Amino acid sequence: MNNCIGIDISKNSFNVHYLTDSSDHLTDYTDRNIRETVGRFVSAEPDLIVMEATGGYETPLAAELFAAGLPVSVVNPKRIRDFAKAIGQTAKNDRIDARIIAQFGATLQPPISAAPDVNVVRIRALTSRKRQLIKMRTAEKNRTEQSRDEFTTRSIRTVIDTLNAQIAAVEEEIRATVALSPELKEKAEIIRSVPGIGEMTATTLVTEMPELGSLNRKQAAALTGTAPICRDSGQFRGKRMTGGGRCEVRKTLYMPTLAAIRHNTVIRSYYHRLLAAGKNKMVAVVACMRKIVVIVNSMLRNKEVWNPNFA
Q: What is the pLDDT of residue 236?
């Protein structure tokens, strides 16, 4: 796969590397330049266009590329960094990064990403904003414990009340956006039928893991980073540990998993079996998290609500 294009994106610009002729183009990140770049890509007829998931900077360009029907793969930046280390590339700048991204695409041929639903993109942005607001609220609550001045305490409580109102507003906007998509709404309702899983957790799962329902059990576990990874070499047998995957999904699932251990008979029974087998509590919790993801994946694939007899 030689006709591969790598794009390194930053806040104000993006650097494009064409693997066919090793040319580079640095472009300001504007709507006009995005349109012109997409036009050049259409003419070039690339086998694959690769870019990193950069926390949202890639979204405008990726959206135009998807709309043009171009083969785009949005990959985890860590995979690119690991690839650069593997080929001995230690120097780093925008031009080099774009070239490495193109080489990564040509060598490993990552799968083409599916164009995200516009409602999914908006819910992800709203969910990110909710996390920011919760973080700010936690910081203010911590300050309340340290405050000894009456005016300062009132000020902190006022800010907390404002943040609570904003969090509620964001949650209502998420609900309204989910309601606009029959597919998202159906998936969220299926997931919510699992005892222990609430509305916001269900929404996070359908937006951050749109692949759920089309994966096998191993893929579903790996995508959340809850699958044990072997670390063996020769006669050495390393300790199996989880890692990788989508950390935000894993964080979101933690508290609902604890609730499921208490209120979901299937998960509670599984948890206590693991403890009886000698597993420590955190290992058992992660295993329960993995089991929930696998069950949810199966439910979405079969379009069935929770049934403890089939879990």
A: 45
